[in-house]
C-alpha cells in the first residue's frame, strides 16, 4: 500500500496490508488479551491513558509532521489537532471513575440492587482520516478505558498515524494484545466485519456507514456510526459585528480545507446584511495562504484525497449551470499535489448539489434569506443532522430557532467545534449512537443488573 503525500502526489512510504491470516491471528490475540485487560483496575487503566497522553505530547513535533505529510493538513493545524485531542484525556481523568464504577441503587429492603458496567469485549474501530486524533480518541481511548480490546483500523489515508497510536499505547502500558492496528483499506475493513466481534464503531461516510450497519446487523451487537454532514450556518441581521461574523464563518467553512464532519457546509444570511457579509467573507478568504502544508502560515493545504477535487469541481460546474456566481477561487492550484483554491459562491439555491450533498472540501455557497422562517426551512432541508449554527446578537431568538432543528449539536455564535463534555451524536444520515460526555464513557459498556438477597 503506497502512502502518498497529497502535497506532491509522491509516495512517502510503502506499507503491507494485513492478510486474512494476519487479521484472524490478531483478532484471536485480542480475544485473549481482553480477558486480562478487563481485570486491570479502572484507576490503573486511567493512569495508562494519561501516560499515553504524556507520550503523545513528548513526541508532538514528530507526530504532527507525520500527520501533515500523509494527510496534507497544514502543520499548525496538525499541532492544534494533537494538542486539542488531549481534552479527551482530561475528560477521562475527570469523569471516568464516576461513570464506570458500580452504582448502588438500593441498599435497604429485602433485595439490594446494583448496576455494574462491563466491557463489550473486542470491538472494531474503523476510522476516518480527517481528524484521526479526535475521531480515533473518541472511540479507542474510551473503549480501552472501559476494559475492551480494540481492533483499530485507521483510514488508509492516515495509516502512519494509526501505527504511531499503536506504538505509543503499547509504550504507555496497554498490553499488546489489547490494542491491534489493522493496516489496509476497504478489504481489511471487510475482514473485520466478517469477524465475530462484540461491537462496531465506525467513523466515515454515510455510504460506508450504512453498508456496515446492514452487514453486521444480524450479529446483534452494538453499532455506532459517526457519519457526514451538510451543516448550515445562519447569520441574523442583528449580529454585533458583521465583519467578525464573516471571519468566523469562513474559518468554520475552510479550516482543515473544509474536511471536517462539522465544517460549515452552507451559509444563509439575512438580506439586510447580505452584501456586507459576502464582501467581508470574500475579503477574509482572499487572505488565506495556500501552499506547502509544512510551511508556517499555510492555512490551505492540499486535499487529502485526489478524487475529492473532482467532487468539488463538479459541484461548482453544476452550481454555475444553475445560475450561481463564483466570487472567489474554485480552481486547481500549482503544478503538483491535490490543491484547489477555496471557492466562494453566491446566487445559490437548493436545486444545486453544493447546497444538498456533502462537499467535504474548500467550497461554500452563501444564500440570501428574507427572514428566520425561510432560514429555518432551508436549514432543515437536508438528509443529514450533525450540527447547525446561528450567529445573532440575541441568544433567545437564536435558541428559539435552533431548538427546532433535527441535529445532534446546535451552536450559537460559534461553529465547527466539539467538546468532550457534551454528547457527540448525529441524527438522520449523520449517524447513530453517542461518543463523548458521560454517555460516550458508557457507550463501550453493557450494564449488568444485580438483585441481591440475604
Ligand atoms: P470512508 O467511509 O471512505 O472510510 C472510512 C473508513 O471505512 C476507512 O477506514 C475505510 O478504509 C473503511 N471502509 C471503506 N469501505 C469499507 C468496507 N466496505 N468495509 C469496512 N470498512 C470500510 O470515509 P472517509 O473518507 O475516511 O471519511 C470522510 C467521511 O467521514 C465524511 O463523510 C465525514 O463527514 C465523516 N466523518 C464524520 C465524523 C463524525 O464525527 N460524525 C468525523 C469525521 C469524519
Structure description:
The protein is an alpha/beta fold. The protein folds into 2 domains: 2-227 and 430-453, Aldehyde Dehydrogenase, Chain A, domain 1 (3-Layer(aba) Sandwich); 231-412, Aldehyde Dehydrogenase, Chain A, domain 2 (3-Layer(aba) Sandwich). The protein has helices at residues 20-37, 42-58, 60-71, 75-100, 132-145, 159-172, 186-194, 206-216, 242-254, 274-286, 307-321, 372-380, 395-403, 437-442; strands at 2-5, 10-14, 103-106, 111-119, 122-126, 149-153, 179-181, 199-203, 223-226, 231-235, 264-270, 325-328, 343-346, 363-369, 384-385, 387-391, 409-412, 427-428, 431-432, 445-453. The strands form 5 sheets. Strands 12-13-14-11-10-16-17 form a 7-stranded mixed sheet, with helices on both faces. Strands 7-6-5-8-9-19 form a 6-stranded mixed sheet, sandwiched between helices. The chain has a 3-stranded antiparallel sheet with strand order 3-4-20, with no helix packed on it. Helix 3 (60-71) crosses helix 4 (75-100) and helix 4 runs parallel beside helix 5 (132-145). The radius of gyration is 23 Å and the shape is globular. The N and C termini lie far apart (61 Å). Bound molecules: nicotinamide-adenine-dinucleotide.
Amino acid at each position: 500500500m503506497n502512502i502518498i503525500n497529497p502535497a506532491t502526489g509522491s509516495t512517502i512510504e510503502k506499507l503491507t496490508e494485513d492478510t486474512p491470516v494476519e487479521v484472524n491471528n490478531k483478532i484471536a490475540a485480542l480475544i485473549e488479551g481482553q480477558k486480562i485487560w478487563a481485570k486491570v483496575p479502572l484507576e490503573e487503566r486511567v493512569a495508562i491513558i494519561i501516560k499515553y497522553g504524556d507520550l503523545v505530547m513528548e513526541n508532538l513535533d514528530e507526530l504532527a509532521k507525520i500527520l501533515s505529510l500523509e494527510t496534507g493538513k497544514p502543520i499548525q493545524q496538525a499541532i492544534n489537532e494533537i494538542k486539542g485531542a488531549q481534552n479527551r484525556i482530561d475528560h477521562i481523568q475527570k469523569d471516568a471513575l464516576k461513570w464506570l464504577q458500580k452504582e448502588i441503587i438500593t441498599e435497604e429492603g429485602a433485595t439490594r440492587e446494583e448496576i455494574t458496567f462491563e466491557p463489550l469485549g473486542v470491538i472494531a474501530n474503523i476510522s476516518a482520516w480527517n481528524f484521526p486524533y479526535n475521531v480515533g480518541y473518541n472511540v479507542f481511548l474510551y473503549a480501552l478505558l472501559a476494559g475492551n480490546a480494540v481492533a483499530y483500523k485507521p483510514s488508509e489515508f492516515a495509516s502512519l498515524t494509526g501505527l504511531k497510536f499503536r506504538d505509543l499505547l503499547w509504550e504507555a502500558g496497554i498490553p499488546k494484545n489489547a490494542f491491534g492496528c489493522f493496516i489496509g483499506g476497504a478489504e481489511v475493513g471487510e475482514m473485520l466485519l466478517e469477524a465475530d466481534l462484540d461491537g462496531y464503531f465506525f467513523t466515515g461516510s454515510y455510504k460506508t456507514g450504512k453498508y456496515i450497519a446492514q452487514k453486521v446487523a444480524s450479529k446483534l451487537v452494538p453499532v455506532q456510526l459517526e457519519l457526514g454532514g451538510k451543516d448550515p450556518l445562519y447569520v441574523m441581521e442583528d449580529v454585533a459585528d458583521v465583519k467578525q461574523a464573516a471571519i468566523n464563518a469562513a474559518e468554520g467553512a475552510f479550516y482543515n480545507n473544509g474536511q471536517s464532519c462539522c465544517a460549515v457546509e452552507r451559509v444563509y444570511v439575512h438580506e439586510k446584511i447580505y452584501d456586507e457579509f459576502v464582501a467581508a467573507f470574500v475579503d477574509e478568504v482572499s487572505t488565506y495562504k495556500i501552499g506547502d502544508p509544512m510551511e508556517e502560515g499555510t492555512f490551505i493545504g492540499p486535499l487529502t484525497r485526489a478524487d475529492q477535487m473532482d467532487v468539488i469541481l463538479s459541484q461548482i460546474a453544476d452550481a454555475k449551470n444553475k445560475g450561481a456566481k463564483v466570487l472567489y477561487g474554485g480552481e486547481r492550484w500549482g503544478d503538483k499535489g491535490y490543491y484547489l483554491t477555496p471557492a466562494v459562491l453566491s446566487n445559490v439555491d437548493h436545486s444545486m448539489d453544493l447546497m444538498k450533498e456533502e462537499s467535504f472540501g474548500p467550497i461554500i455557497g452563501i444564500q440570501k434569506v428574507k427572514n428566520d422562517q425561510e432560514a429555518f426551512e432551508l436549514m432543515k432541508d437536508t438528509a443529514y443532522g450533525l450540527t447547525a449554527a446561528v450567529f445573532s446578537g440575541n441568544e433567545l431568538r437564536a435558541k428559539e430557532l435552533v431548538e427546532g432543528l433535527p441535529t445532534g449539536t446546535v451552536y450559537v455564535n460559534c461553529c465547527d467545534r466539539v467538546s468532550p463534555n457534551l454528547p457527540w451524536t448525529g441524527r438522520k444520515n449523520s449517524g447513530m449512537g453517542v461518543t463523548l460526555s458521560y454517555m460516550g464513557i458508557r457507550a463501550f459498556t453493557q450494564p449488568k443488573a444485580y438483585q441481591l438477597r440475604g
